[in-house]
C-alpha cells in the first residue's frame, strides 16, 4: 500500500465494532488473526481516489480508482471472466461509496450476468446438512404467514414485487390470490370449503404442468415468466397447507413438496439459460416495454428498463430462496435436519425492494452501504454492516440460517 501513509489507515471493521484497538496490519490485523476472523478495512465515506480490493484470504490492497467504476458491474460476456469475478467480489464486499454509473454499466448490470446466477454449494460456512433452532423455525413460519397476509391485503410482499404482475397477471397467480384471500377471510363455518378450494386449485396447477422425465426439457418448455408465476402460485398453496395445522391439508401438500423444489430449480435454470443465450444479450428494441414481464432479463440501458429487469431478476432470486427455505424448514420439523440448498446472491439492500419508481430505486442503490448479499456469507455481513443496512427479507434469511440469537446479538452490537 505504498503511497498511502499508514497513520491515515482506518481501523478494521471487526475492531471498530468491538471497540478494540487495531494494529492496522495487512493482510490481517493482530486481533483478527488471533480471533481467526476475516479482517476487512472500510473505504473512506468520501469517495477516495483509490479502491480497496480484498482477496479471499482477507488481504487488502489499494489500486487507482477507475473513472468508470460502478455499482452495476458488466457481465462476463462483455469482458474477461476474471474481471467479472473481481467486480462481483467488490460488489459483495459492502464498501460504502457513491459512484457514478456509466451507460455501459446500466446496459450490462451485475444481476444480468450469468456468473451471478451460480448456486454456491460449498460447505465452508454452512454444513451440507443444516438444522434450525426452534426460535428460528417459529420466526420464519410466522414471517411466511405475515407475508401472505400482506400479499392478500396490499398486493405485494417481500418475494412478490408490486410491479411484477401489474400488467400481465397470469391465471395461476389470479387463482392463488383468490384462494389466499378466501383463506385469510375464512370462518369456522367456511374453513372446510376454503381448504377444499385451495386443494383443488393446487392439484389443477400441478396437473396442468405434468412433470417431464427429462428435467432439462421442462426448463425450455416455458419462458422465465411462466416458471416464476407457477412457482410463486405453488409456494402460496404450500405455505398455507403445510403450516395451517389441518392434517389433511398438510398430507396433501406433502405430495407436492418435490414438485415445488423441481419448479424452483427449473425457474432458476431457465433464467440462467436465458442469460447464457443470445436472448439474454438482446436489448429491447425501440425501448418498447410494458413492465418487468416484457423486459424480463434484458435492458436497453435506460434506468427504467434496468429497474424493470432488476425487478424480474430479483423476483426469481427471492422466490427461489423462499421456496427452498420453506422446504428446508418443513423438513427440519419432520426429521430435525434438511439439505443445505446452497448460496445465491440477491439484493438485500434497504429500500431497494420498496422503491416505487426507477429514479428512487437508482438513488437508493447509489446511497446504500449494502446492495447485494450472498445468503451463506452472513458472517461477513455481521461484521461489515448494520441491520438497518438490509431489508426485511434479508433479515428473515439471516435468522433462519444463523439463528435468532446471532441476529439479536448483531442488532445489539450495532446499537
From TrEMBL:
Pfam families assigned: Zn_clus (PF00172)
Key words of the record: Metal-binding, Nucleus, Transcription, Transcription regulation, Zinc
An example molecular function term from Gene Ontology annotations: DNA-binding transcription factor activity, RNA polymerase II-specific
Region: Disordered, residue numbers: 65-103
Keyword Transcription regulation: yes
Domain Zn(2)-C6 fungal-type residue range list: 11-41
SUPFAM superfamilies: Zn2/Cys6 DNA-binding domain (SSF57701)
Name of the protein in its database record: Zn(2)-C6 fungal-type domain-containing protein
Highest classification ranks of the organism: Eukaryota, Fungi, Dikarya, Ascomycota, Pezizomycotina
